[in-house]
Design brief:
Length: 214
């Protein structure tokens, strides 16, 4: 029996799978090139200046509220079936990764929901979990950062809280570097966005095991 070797892309995806299994999160640097990030940022800033972003909230449906003591960013929801200019390559690559995860891990991911997120200087999001008690369809959180030249002193790091087998907890701090994709278990890992000291942009969202109803 001949085994077809994995492509370069599949090797990266396989490493992400192994990292998710072993530590419940994965980091794929250079998921987008600098040029691809630049094209997406042009669209993001155009939409931001056109007033298409709204203050982000917490909760859902009747429990939805905007509380800037907990979360201080602005978002615009994206339609991955009709991606905005510059974003097609991101959604295509994320779909390829999703297909690989479904083939190898049998996650049953059937949909994704993604949005632009912008934190202005002083923006943050306190420690939280990405699933709701009444809705458990989010399986993996996915964040792709769009911040050229980001430095540690710019703040805005993603802080992951990792439960340990002995009941303790350790933290992992990840800078929002341009082109970096972070995946983690939506139902297990609490996380926060530390205070940003410059504008911090991303495409953020979730891979879900339930399809959209519309």
């Amino acid at each position: 029996m001949t085994v077809t070797p994995l492509s370069k892309e599949e090797l990266r995806f396989e490493q992400a799978v192994q990292d998710l299994l072993s530590q419940q999160y994965a980091v794929l640097d250079h998921f987008l090139s600098a040029e691809e990030v630049g094209h997406i940022l042009q669209t993001l800033h155009h939409n931001l200046h056109a007033g298409r972003f709204n203050p982000a909230g917490i909760g859902r449906q009747a429990g939805f509220q905007v509380n800037q003591d907990i979360r201080k960013d602005h978002i615009q929801w994206l339609d991955h079936d009709h991606p905005p200019e510059g974003c097609t390559v991101f959604f295509s690559r994320l779909q390829a990764l999703t297909d690989y995860l479904n083939r190898t891990c049998f996650l049953g991911i059937r949909d994704m929901e993604m949005h632009f997120a912008v934190y202005q200087p002083g923006g943050f999001y306190k420690r939280h979990l990405d699933v709701f008690h009444q809705a458990q369809s989010r399986k993996l959180s996915a964040i792709c950062y769009l911040n050229p030249g980001w430095k540690e002193e710019d703040g805005g790091a993603l802080q992951l809280y990792l439960p340990q087998p002995d009941g303790s907890e350790r933290t992992e701090t990840l800078l929002p570097l341009a082109g970096r994709l972070v995946l983690f278990d939506s139902q297990v890992l609490e996380h926060e966005v530390q205070v940003a000291r410059r504008e911090r942009c991303s495409i953020t969202g979730w891979l879900k095991d339930e399809p959209r109803l519309f």
